[in-house]
Amino acid sequence: MTKAKKACYRVTNWREYNESLVRRGDITLWFSEDALASWEHANEERKVGRPFTYSDGAIECLLTLRELFRLPYRQTEGLGRALVKLMDVDVPIPDFTSLAKRAAKLGVSLDLPHRAGPIDVVVDSTGLKVYGAGEWRSQAYQTSKRRTWRKLHLSINAATHEIVAEVLTSRACDDADMVPALLAQIDAPVATLHGDGAYDRWKLYDELAQAEIQPVIPPRKGASIRRHGNSAQPRLPRDEAIRGIRRLGRKGWKRESGYHRRSLVETSMSRLKQAFGPRLKNKAFQNQRTETRLRCKLLNHFTQLGMPTFRWN
Fold first, then answer.
1. Class level of CATH domain 119-266
2. What H or E segment, with its residue span, contains residue 302?
């Protein structure tokens, strides 16, 4: 019996991709002249009390550097001071307390380019640790240590690998309940939604039907058809998936329906944790939301700088 040969691939645009990896650490890419030009402009919105000294763009610029280099707030302030000194720019740097307070209410855009036509999205969720003992310590001592996690729900454009929507919740939140909140963030029309078995919920199918979105979600094992073929009403997508599984088998249905595109969101989650770590630095929930939003925005910039192209051998 011969052993199956493992599929191999190689990067065909290594020179361009290598340059994009180098540019990720370019300070001038993030600490731009546009950000410095509006550094001390007060916000246009009215607020009670003294107006802000620094614009939202200035706060976001420093918080972006904080996520990019995984810094605490105090070191972020120090990095900002060093940068304006090296660049010979006369702008004040907000202190670490102001950064933390403004981060709680900062609105961050994912900075996506406009794309014409409908898109296919892939949804899934992953856990981000807040505090608690590590996996090795928990297994070594067999003790239940206090551990807290957040759940990050992502929606990925299957064609461009960009994060088009994200929601941070507690770990007890159901994945299917967060899909409407994800879809509400997407400006482009959505044609198809790919998700794993956690999204096999009738309430979600009904919401997708109202939005005219085709679901590609595997029904649970032993699922039964709700609307049979002799009905005068249109066939349900979930029923069609069950029929396809009965006809082709679960593996065959996944290949035919394109379900395996769902792995794209798992790749994005892996890239997110490799670039910024699996742990959140902030303890306050509002600051954590801004933190994860900035990470997703940075990952989109990484994607736009350049992605590898592969050729299978």
1. alpha beta
2. helix 285-305
- Please tell me the distance from the alpha carbon of residue 10 to that of residue 17, in angstroms, as a whole number: 12
* Average pLDDT taken over every residue of the chain: 85
Domain ranges of the chain: 9-107+283-312, 119-266
The string of DSSP letters for 24-73 reads TT-HHHHS-HHHHHTTTPPPSS--SSSPPSS-HHHHHHHHHHHHHTT--H
The encoded tokens of residue 275 equal 């670039």
Tell me the torsion sign for CA atoms 168, 170, 175, 178: negative
Phi, psi of 125 (to 5 degrees): -135, 155
Cα distances (angstroms) measured from residue 47 to each of 28, 43, 208 = 32, 9, 39
The closest alpha carbon to 157, from 20, 56, 296, belongs to 296
What's the CA gap between 238 and 241, in Å, rounded? 5
Least confidently predicted of 33-37, 47-51, 205-209, 309-313: 47-51
E strands present in 214-288:
214-216
Whole-prediction pTM value? 0.85
Element (H, E) at 182: helix 179-184
CA angle 68, 70, 76 (to 5 degrees): 85
Spatial separation of the C-alpha atoms in residues 127 and 278, rounded to whole Å: 8
63 by Cβ neighbours in 10 Å (0-12 / 13-18 / 19+) ranks as buried
Q: What are phi and psi of 150, to 5 degrees?
A: -115, 155
Q: How far is CA 170 from CA 122, 181, 248, 262, in A?
A: 21, 15, 38, 23
Q: Which residues pair with 155 in a beta bridge?
A: 123, 165
Express each pLDDT in 121-175 by its tens digit. 999 999 998 876 555 555 555 555 566 889 999 999 999 999 999 999 988 889 9
Cα dihedral 264, 201, 152, 162 in deg (nearest 10): 30
